[in-house]
Write a structure and sequence with these properties.
Layout: E1 14-17, E2 21-28, E3 42-50, H1 52-62, E4 67-70, E5 72-74, H2 77-88, E6 97-99, E7 106-109
Parallel strand pairs: 1-4, 2-7, 5-6
Antiparallel strand pairs: 2-3
């Protein structure tokens, strides 16, 4: 549920410029020991939008504040996933710069 927007912000949009990345969340039974290959012990994983500017846009929108993300985006599968995150959250992305088949920044959290 969105909070009431202050009078100063009504009719205005906040521009968030910067990083957007594809976070890959990996769920393991235990934290892997150093210098071991524990990839076969992954219980689950999921993709999630991340990056400071992208996360700020998402939170601002959840608070009912109009916002826009400005940055670079890829047209590959990961980039399309991230673009859909913005569209689903009604965040403006019309001024982004798109690169063909550029791999988005990825952060892996075990």
């Amino acid at each position: 549920m969105a909070l009431p927007v202050s009078v100063e912000l009504q009719g205005k949009r906040i521009l968030c410029v910067g990083l957007m990345c594809l976070d890959i969340i990996v769920v393991c039974k235990s934290y892997p020991e150093e210098d071991t290959d524990q990839s076969s012990r992954c219980l689950a994983h999921r993709w999630q939008q991340g990056g400071n500017a992208a996360n700020n846009c998402t939170v601002l929108k959840q608070l009912g504040i109009s916002c826009e993300y400005l940055g670079t985006m890829s047209t590959d599968y990961g980039g399309l996933f991230l673009k859909k995150c913005f569209i689903d959250n009604h965040i403006e992305i019309k001024n982004c710069v798109y690169y063909e088949e550029r791999v988005p920044d990825v952060m892996r959290v075990d």
